[in-house]
Design goal:
Layout: E1 18-22, H1 29-36, E2 48-49, E3 52-53, H2 62-66, E4 69-72, H3 84-94, H4 99-112, H5 128-140, E5 146-150, H6 158-173, E6 177-182, H7 185-188, E7 194-199, E8 202-206
Parallel strand pairs: 1-6, 1-7, 4-5, 5-6
Antiparallel strand pairs: 2-3, 7-8
Helix pairs in contact: 3-4, 3-5
Length: about 210
């Protein structure tokens, strides 16, 4: 099956906590986030999510559990034929919710991330920073208990990176646990937070 990317690591993400997942490119940060999002199963070891053993979770249960986990992908994954509003509302539409029940929530969330005037714009027209904020809004629309962000500031300038970090801090203060995968040391120096350092398949946690 090839070499193990991660091995013999153990950690706990407390409710309402804030942490950086750092390490060099290729260290396994994205793989670890995928394990936490339950889109990847470990070849060995135990993952417990919201008190449930990963191996005991039925396929039909996965969508229900993932609603508690928001994820911001490094490549945004916005649908180009849908407006900003439609991209953010998509998780709720897929669940069969009536638009009238969530329209105000989507609009308010987009205002919160600074996209109140970009509701009806298609992704190809948005800047990289605007796409990132739209992706963050989409990850938050179902009010997750934990947010995973994969290199969320990797494609933006330092000023916007600080703005995005403030959004994550504000979100964390509202009670959501936040895990930010990054190799940006300057970003990490701006906030007092736990650092989970991946290197050569091992994880060291620095509180």
């Amino acid at each position: 099956m090839g070499p193990e990317i991660l091995r013999d690591i153990s950690f706990h993400i407390p409710r309402g906590s804030f942490q950086f997942l750092c390490g060099p490119s290729g260290a396994g940060k994205t793989t670890l986030l995928r394990l936490l999002f339950l889109s990847l199963a470990p070849t060995r070891g135990l993952i417990t999510v919201f008190g449930k053993d990963r191996t005991q979770i039925l396929r039909a249960e996965l969508p229900l559990i993932r609603r508690k986990i928001g994820i911001v992908f490094q490549d945004f994954r916005l649908l180009d034929h849908m407006t900003t509003y439609e991209n953010v509302a998509l998780p709720l539409r897929v669940r069969g919710r009536e638009e009238a029940s969530y329209r105000n929530d989507v609009v308010e969330l987009l205002k919160w991330v600074g996209l109140g005037d970009r509701l009806h714009v298609l992704p190809p027209v948005l800047s990289g920073g605007e796409k990132q904020r739209a992706a963050i809004a989409r990850a938050l629309i179902e009010q997750p208990e934990i947010l995973l962000a994969d290199e969320p500031t990797g494609n933006v300038d330092p000023t916007l990176a600080r703005r995005l970090l403030r959004l994550f801090i504000e979100l964390n203060r509202s009670g959501t646990a936040v895990v930010i995968a990054t190799h940006d040391l300057h970003l990490m120096d701006q906030v007092e937070a736990r650092r989970m350092v991946l290197a050569e398949g091992r994880l060291d946690v620095h509180d």
